[in-house]
Each structure stands twice: as C-alpha cells, then as structure tokens.
Amino acid sequence: MNFAAVSPERLPDLLRAMPKTELHMHIEGSLEPELIFQMAKRNQVQIPYSSVDVLRAAYAFTDLQSFLDIYYAGASVLLHEPDFYDMAWAYFLKAQADNVVHAELFFDPQTHTARQVPMATVINGLHRACVDAQTKLGISASLIMCFLRHLSEEDALQTLQEAKPYLDKIIGVGLDSSEQGHPPEKFERVFAQARALGLHVVAHAGEEGPPAYIWGALDVLKAERIDHGVQAMHDTALMQRLAQERIPLTVCPLSNQKLCVFPNLADHNLGAMLDQGLCVMLNSDDPAYFGGYLNDNYLQTFAALPLTATHAYQLACNSFEASFVPEPQKQAWRTQLDACFKLYGA
Ligand code: HPA
Ligand code: ZN
Question: Does the C-beta of 141 come closer than 6 Å to ligand 1?
C-alpha cells in the first residue's frame, strides 16, 4: 500500500469512507436530547430540564463525574422495551452513515434495574436492535454488559446473576462509571465469575485514574482490552507491556476533550501511542453528549494532530484486530479496507 500517494485533501473523505469497528460506545450515551424529550413525554417521566436547548446547554462538563450526573438523568426516561430498541436503532443509523461495519455496545443495566426496569426489558430491546442492524443495515453488533464501579461488588454479582438467562445475548462484561476511588480490585470476584461463564472481559481504566488501575485491570480482572487507557503514557513499563502483548486501548478523543482529560484535541497523545506501536483505535464513547459520532472523532482528531493516511490505515486495522470476532471476519474487513484505500490512490 502506497500511503504517501493519498493526497492530504482527500484524507477526510477517506476517513469517512473507510470500514471501521466501534468498540467503546455506551448505548445510553447515544441518547440525543430530542429522543430524551420524546421518551419523557411518552413515558410521563419528569426531567429537570425545560427544553432540548436547556438540556444541551447543560452539556458543559469539567470532569467525568459532572458528565455522569447528567448521563444518568438522561437514561431515566428509558422504561419499556421499545425505548431500548429505539435508542439502539437511532445509533445504528448513525453508525451506518459512518461506515461502521461492526459495533460492540456497552450498556449499564444497573441504571435501569435500580428503577425497577426488568433486565429482560433492557437486554431484549437492545438485542432486537442488534439483530435488525445485521439484517437491515449489514452491521454486525453485539452487547457488553457494564458494571457500575461506584456501586458495590455485591450489586455487580447480583446483576451478573440476573443476566444469566440472557447470556446468549451478551458477549462480555465491562466496568464503567466513576473511576477515581474505585479500583479494578474491587470487582475481582465478579470478573472471575464472568470469565468462568465464558464471557469476554474489558474495563475502563486510566481515563482519569492512574496507571495502577490499568495494571489492576490487566492483572486482577484479566481484561482483554482497556477502555480509554490514555494515562498509560505516564508509565514506561506499562507502555512496553501494552505494546508487547498488543493489548488494545479503545481511545475516545472527543470524550477526553469534553471531560478535560486533555485541554485540547491538539494535546491528545493518540499520535504518540500509535507511534509507540500500541493497538489503539478511535471510538465515540457517548456521542450524544460529547459532540460527535465515530467519523466526527476521526475527522476532528486528524484535523488537530499531525496524522497521515498511514495512521488512518493502522487505526482501522487495529479496530478490526481488537474486536471479538473470528479471524476470517477480520481478514475480510482488511480486504475491504485495502480496496477502499486503493480508491483513494494508495
Ligand atoms: N467513563 C466511565 N463511565 C462511563 C463513561 C466513561 O467514559 N461513559 C459512560 N459511562
Ligand atoms: Zn466509556
């Protein structure tokens, strides 16, 4: 592949067109203000914002917690199976427009079961949308159930128990919510149980928290991927391990910017991580809250950093490599990627 032959003017279109996976997207974080108000009305749920514009104006975050408070308030309008379906379907339409070929979606059941929404309602609604994404849009999609780390391990164990009738509808478990003060070690037993059930395991670590949380996610939880992980740059030994073992980091630049992890996109360490050989790729995290879906993350990040067609190819390849699908599928996507790059002169 002759990457130097791709003209810089055509790079944005190539970024849009290239096939890619999305591996770090909280489906509740794709709930747009318009849909929040629509669902609040049809479900007769009160929300403490008078209009779409007032709600959107509240999206001025200073850190992870300031975002989570609004994110959980937004999710409170989800009550019935069609709500979960509609939310996921709206995301899949955006994903299709961004040439996403495969998505592994996070969901937060505890946010819903705490409001007496049954686990069946959550998983069946999301799963039905995943099935339709495949049959109607040609996007393969699967679900990863996240435990909220600000809650107890007992609560997480109970959640895993409640999910047991639906294990054929989820591929793995993850760990999200307030990071600081809630190290991975808190969830050692529930992750061991999930692994014993044959589930994949991933964990948010090193978004705001220290590199020690990434070590904990790897060594104690046996995480196969690290979500965010951008704080790894402060630990040389950790960087070496991530590179050597090709442990993927699901990086979310617009999220990092909006939650003030980096002051500006131009300060993001994505380029440095790529150049050090890490298996990183881009993701949108909570696109309705952070001002952009997957292609917005690619376009804005490439506009802010000195990244090239070589980096674009690497990011797309990494997004295939890091996904939980069989190797022949990854190879088929690489072939598609090569064809796309050839169209743009490579
Ligand atoms: N970090 C932690 N928890 C989350 C996030 C995130 O980026 N998005 C939704 N829940
Ligand atoms: Zn996240």
Answer: no
Q: Decide: 288 and 30 in contact? Cβ < 8 Å.
A: yes
Instruction: Please tell me which residue in 207, 208, 321, 327 is annotated as part of the active site.
Output: 207
* pLDDT tens over the chain, length 346 residues: 999 999 999 999 999 999 999 999 999 999 999 999 999 999 999 999 999 999 999 999 999 999 999 999 999 999 999 999 999 999 999 999 999 999 999 999 999 999 999 999 999 999 999 999 999 999 999 999 999 999 999 999 999 999 999 999 999 999 999 999 999 999 999 999 999 999 999 999 999 999 999 999 999 999 999 999 999 999 999 999 999 999 999 999 999 999 999 999 999 999 999 999 999 999 999 999 999 999 999 999 999 999 999 999 999 999 999 999 999 999 999 999 999 999 999 9
Closest ligand 1 atom to 176 CA: 3
Distance CA 141, CA 22 (A): 9
For domain 3-343, the CATH architecture is: Alpha-Beta Barrel (3.20)
Q: pTM higher than 0.85, yes or no?
A: yes
DSSP 8-state symbol, 285:
B
Cβ atoms of 134 and 161 closer than 8 Å: no
